[in-house]
Amino acid sequence: MKTVKPILLSLVILLSLNFRLFAQSTGFEDDFNAIQYALNQGNASESYRLAHNFVENYPDSSKAWYLKSQVERQIIQYKKALKSGLQAINIESGIPAYYYQISSIYSDLQQYKLCVSYCDSVMHIDSTHLFAAILKGNALIKNGQTEEALDQYYTLHLQDSVNINFMKRIGSLYAKIDSLNNAISWYSKAVEIDTTDISSYTHLGNLYVRSEQYETGLPVLTKAISIDSINSWLYRFRGSLNIMGANLAEAEEDFTKAILLGDSTAFTFRHLGLSLYKQSKYEEALPVYQATVKLDPADSQAWYYLAFCYKWKEDLDNAIACMDKALELSVSPGISDVYNGLAQFYSLERKYDTAMHYYSRAYEWNEEDPVPLAQMGMLVEQTGGDKENAKSFYLSFIQKASLKDTQLKKYIEGRLQIINEKLFMDGKLEREE
User: Fold this and answer.
1) Quick check: is 228 in a domain?
2) What's the total number of domains in the chain?
3) What is the pTM of this model?
4) Tens digit of pLDDT for each residue in 244-264?
């Protein structure tokens, strides 16, 4: 009996200790679940209060500090969240979730280099951690490390070759570095897997416009429109391709549809105006270009075409005012066309000296285009000027004329023959044998 009592006493003590440990474990889980519940309910103040008490009750628990970090991140107290997360790692390293938490906080703080570093730590522990791999890719993009981001997303694609999000990300990165054909290839892979992915079709539309691949792009966008017939972006891009292909009536229809669907960008109005202008629908183009310059007063091309619309309306004052505005906004080489337009308008107003000045300026800005030389020669003739002077302009034009100037060159050669005949009759030129 004397030996039984110590044994019973030991059992009582052991049971007492186990009960307290069980109670502590149960209390921990209850507190943990209470915080998770408050978080899920969006009760920020309650979750924060519970998390603060949690680490006071269990200061040596990495799980408690990790949960507190989660709560603090959710209520946008990033510095506190970072401190709590690092404390969790100090207590217990080697847990991927803790490192991923820190990388996420650094991403929130826009400290992308540190975000990448902690993502690498996660993947060092768990090489299959998909979320860390994706977060690293996004951080590399935001840190301007495009080539490294491409490598990262190629790695992700190798791990999951049918994930269209990875394909689209690779496509967007190629587009960012102007590798347009590669970008088209990857977005095309995405729509091969998901033939209804309108966002990929939209990106493809933009890429086909940027790369001027209208023949390839038109059927792709037509297919996309058959899937989503109320997407204004698709009509905008198909309209742009139709302009490139000189399908002007189709372009007019596409841009009109885009505007009806809510597209109010200067780009769309300007290109609708262009499709009308190139069909010689100057009256219809006029209000479209007026709307364009209201949407974007710095659009030099819109001012340029608006000027010509006024010219065809025989409103030369407004034509000159608009062309002056285009001149103010233009940069080389487009400025040469603006000078040319001003020269034409002033010539119609019989302000020949001013017209001559602007033709001269047009040629100075773009000596690759010899047409202003021919126009100056014609202006000299029109005003009864020195025929030798006109001849000099004509000869310079013929010397520089290219294949695209063939029709004008034939006309100028005819003018030269007439001038030479006149100079011969006046005794100023010997007839060639």
Assistant:
1) yes
2) 1
3) 0.74
4) 999 999 999 999 999 999 999
